[in-house]
# Entry
Amino acid sequence: MKSNNLLRIIGGKFRGRKLTFADLPGLRPTGDRLRETLFNWLNPHMPGSRCLDLYTGSGALALESLSRDASEVTALDRMPQVISTLQSQVALLQSAEPNLHLDLHNANAMTWLSQPPSEPYDIVFIDPPFDLNLWQQSIDLLAKNNWLKDGAAIYIESGRDCPYITPKEWRLHREKSAGKVSCRLYFYKCDK
# Structure
């Protein structure tokens, strides 16, 4: 793979590890600075958490979560090449840390969210391909089908001028913009 298909784990037990991601048009990992900011925000909530990465793409958010002691991560992507590449990267990490729990699914997030979960999640990442405009649908299905534990964190990465409406039970905790990208962290049923 080309060198521009590399991502670096920012923190945790795999800090500094460089991993490849699928060579597909438009696939971009969350930038290092935004990722570092996000995981600083999530640091107190990450150990032992169950995470759902709805549009895993490069796998940056899922892999960073595992590096920072999430107990399990479920990662979805509709592109088989994304899932295949991530499976090989996880196998490399599992050779050093056999207890990693990353459940990869070649699945459409809208179909996945249309059904109730077996167990709600502590942290959910919503970072779809920007050209598909899936933020509102994702938000609506998360709320409608009870995908979130009380106090769950929801991270949304979008274009700077991307409009979406969050449920009244979601409280904006932090936000940041970098270039044309905006990131926001919400908490569900939490007055913090």
User: Anything to note?
Assistant: Strands lie at 6-8, 18-20, 50-53, 72-77, 102-106, 121-126, 148-159, 170-178, 181-188. Residues 30 and 60 are 7 Å apart (CA to CA). Residues 3-188 form a domain with the Rossmann fold fold (CATH 3.40.50.150). DSSP finds five helices and nine strands in the chain.
